[in-house]
Amino acid sequence: MDVKKIEFNQRNNTTGKLTFLEAKRDIPFEIKRIYYVYDVAKGERRGFHAHKELEQYLICIHGGCTILLDDGLEKENVLLNNPSEGLYVGPGTWREMYGFSEGAVLLVLASEYYDEADYIRDYSQFKRYITDKEA
Ligand code: T46
């Protein structure tokens, strides 16, 4: 599965914590877009799609949420509840986000501008896409 949890640089002292990410050093792609998902009501589930080309880092900068990842063969659930950790999610990965704690903020760094044509929003279409790619 093309996913990986990364620990970012942290500087902690008695007054608090600071995490930083540097372009090209910590994030291998050029960041073309940043967005964040927040105010997600208890029990809500989002995502339900894969991307054909897009690479992203997901960082839960406040609170926590869980990401279901599926490459068409295996499924994995990753808890994000640490602002100094990022989850790289590569193309061809179905994702669903759930279990948002109250006030959770999920920040996303994306390699491309928003393009609806890059989304696969239908699960059977995703399975066909993966099978065709492997053939
Ligand atoms: C992803 C997960 C982690 C835009 O117009 N511009 C944008 O940059 C984005 C991200 C979305 N939109 C529009 C598209 C929809 O009409 O905002 C609406 C909500 O987007 P969506 O339903 O895709 O949101 P999520 O939370 O299900 O998924 C988002 C990202 O779209 C997706 O790429 O990987 O977060």
From TrEMBL:
Cited Pfam families: FdtA
Gene3D superfamilies found in the cross-reference section: Jelly Rolls
InterPro entries: QdtA_cupin_dom (IPR008894), RmlC-like_jellyroll (IPR014710), RmlC_Cupin_sf (IPR011051)
Top-level taxon of the source organism: Bacteria
Every Sugar 3,4-ketoisomerase QdtA cupin domain range: 1-130
SUPFAM superfamilies (UniProt xref): RmlC-like cupins
Record's protein name: WxcM-like domain-containing protein
